[in-house]
Amino acid sequence: MTLTAREIAEITRLLEDSNFDELRLEIDGLKLHLKRGNAASTEPLPGASAAFTPADTPSPERTPAPKSPAVDRDVQDIVAPMLGTFYRAPRPGEPPFVEHGSPVEADTIIGIIEVMKLMNTVRAGLRGTVVEILARDGALVEYGEPLLRVRRGNEP
Amino acid sequence: MTLHRILIANRGEIAIRIIRTCRKLGLETVLAASDADRDSMPARLADRTICIGAARPGDSYLKVETIVQAALGARADAIHPGYGFLSERPELARLCEEHGLVFIGPTAAQIEAVADKVQARNAAEAAGIPVLPGASVDSVDAALVMARRIGSPVLVKAVGGGGGRGMKRIERLAELPQAIALAAAEAGAAFGDARVYLERFVTGGRHVEVQILGDGAGRVIHLGERDCSIQRRYQKLVEEAPAPGLTEDSRRQLHEAAVRFAERLHYRGAGTVEFLVDEQQAFYFLEMNARIQVEHPVTEAVTGVDLVAEQFAIAGGEGLRLAQGEIEQQGCAIECRVNAEDPARDFLPSPGLVTEARWPAGPGIRVDTHIATGSRVPPYYDSLLAKIIAHGLDRPTASQRMRAAIAATRVSGVATNLRFLDAVLGEPSFRAGAVDTGFVARLLARDTVRTTKGAADA
């Protein structure tokens, strides 16, 4: 069973004209789920005891998150590909791989993550300019933790 | 060494189980969680959560170096591995030893001694504990000779195995070459060890295991036994303590054998010695599990001992705080494993969003779970949603409480085996305590026949 675009539009109009916020339709294995844009989800939300955090809004005290969210679409965070100790320089006392304002290419090394004496190089993965250093030298970084922020392109 | 901060290298209900005891003992908890578990219930309950890698176990929960690095980075002084994942990997125990971290479990050497099932069998024989006829085989020809000597049916098992993986039962010798190839492939993939051995399969046998605690210096006590015969494809579904229908003499002999086996290893921590008990109540050593087990709550219910707290005490150097004479058992406890799987579709795992979860409560009821309304069941891990444990002064009371608890449980959004569990408890043979490892297969075969017949009649 399939529905044409016109039929779906018609069902949508029915929902819009009704007093309901949400419609779930199941016909012969076909499932249609419509929801008003401003309606709160009717997926039951956990009670106070559960205090569940939805997957797309990690609570800041538990999951590493950028200090201020990178809202600018040209600005991107480079995140840790693994858990380990983050080093900004190849050896202690040497200058860091990159600094604020450094231009980077996709294969530019931006740091090292050590996992039990194994040194793993981290590359920028994109072309641009470093606009912020987020992870501290020598700190434990988690998988997915933002290390630094890069503005795409070459203009700072 | 006094423990302060524990890194929990696990997920799901066991992570919460460990956190609960840590809180009681005033221990700080750091949860090592995969990307898929960042917002799980254990992640919210732990004092701190560290993301160790991507969702797939091979990228996170199974990475020995990453786990140790996380523990060192978080300044934890011990790692609790829970069950599964790295709990019985000597590499983790060894790396902990090398870095001054306490591994909550046995020594690396003890894990190795029981991980090799053939070596463990030999150790049991040396301790005067009966084993089933069998031996390791390195070729199909040798296997055929051995199988003829053992007599069918025969079980092909993985030397490095456990948890029922790599196990194949064969009825006729002609099936043997293929079964060996399959078991070896499965074992190689799951344990990195493709060696297999043969053992006589005992029809009508029961799976009975003894919980032990060892101080690592040669002193071992037992906390009674559990019957885990209700299994589907070697995966346990319903467990109970004490084992029904055993004579006091058999029970005592089982306990003594388990203690003797662990004593010879100078076993440290919590462990379980598994036996097969045949219809004449003769018993045979199967293997030893060097970890806390899924079904440990039934033992806790009847003995009143917090096994995880004892694990911490032993690991922290307090040794065994209980003498054998102090272990008393009261009543009967039954555990049901509620899994996200669909009995109507051959128990196919059913991951997804749990839109409603309501767990039972009441006298004698305990629920160990990480699932609440709104929880996600990721597709990367096992399908265990909860363990419901019912305790009562006798077996009928425990059983009755369990059925009422199952009836009061509501899980929507994912398929569950709840109705199947209730069917198991309602079976006359279960009620009579006449269980054996063929129970579930017989129940399923009978019900399939009935449904097929019903459909034909309709």
| Count of individual beta strands of chain B | 23
Structural classification of chain A? mainly beta
End-to-end separation of chain A: 54 Å
Q: What is the average per-residue confidence, as pLDDT of chain A, rounded to a whole number?
A: 76
List the strand order in the largest sheet of chain A: 3-10-8-5
Q: How many angstroms does the end-to-end distance of chain B come to?
A: 69 Å
- Assembly type of the chains comes to heterodimer
Which features does this protein show?
heterodimer; A: 156 residues; mainly beta; four-stranded antiparallel β-sheet; 1 helix; elongated; B: 458 residues; alpha+beta; eight-stranded antiparallel β-sheet; five-stranded parallel β-sheet; 23 strands; 36% helix; 27% strand; disordered C terminus
Polypeptide structure, described:
The complex is a heterodimer of chains A (156) and B (458). With 156 residues, chain A is mainly beta. Helix content of chain A is 8%, strand content 33%. In chain A, strand 1 (22-27) and strand 2 form a beta hairpin. Chain A starts with a helix and ends with a strand. In chain B, strand 4, helix 4 (90-98) and strand 5 form a beta-alpha-beta unit. In chain B, the strands form six sheets. In chain B, strands 14-13-10-11-12-15-22-20 form an eight-stranded antiparallel sheet, with helices on both faces. Chain B has a five-stranded parallel sheet with strand order 3-2-1-4-5, sandwiched between helices. A four-stranded antiparallel sheet of chain B has the order 6-9-7-8. Chain B is an alpha+beta fold and 458 residues long. Chains A and B meet through loops of A and helix 2, strand 3 and helix 3 of B.
